[in-house]
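B., you asked whether I could sanity-check this one before it goes into the benchmark set. Here's the sequence:
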Amino acid sequence: MHGPAISSPDGKHIAVVYWIMAGAVGFDHVHVVVRPRYSPFTKEVFAGLAQDPPNDPTVSRKDNNHILVSYSENGTTEPCGNAINKVDNIEVQCRE
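And here's what the prediction gave me:
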């Protein structure tokens, strides 16, 4: 299942969220990939558990250099421990 593309405020990068639904055999997972606006090639920047796809976690852009993966509305925000790659200094932060 794919979510909508999330453009950075400056329009230079696109983030795409997708979920892998395991159903009864395991846990659902969320993945976030980023690509430059005019490139077809993506790089995965985050992979984690999804509790209620596509509503949890929510993924949004804080600014040009930060993507926020929110598992909670009121939790603390810090760099994700399971962030995978950096793309052009874009940091993935998690709120839990």
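One thing to flag: The chain has a mean pLDDT of 88. Otherwise nothing jumped out at me.
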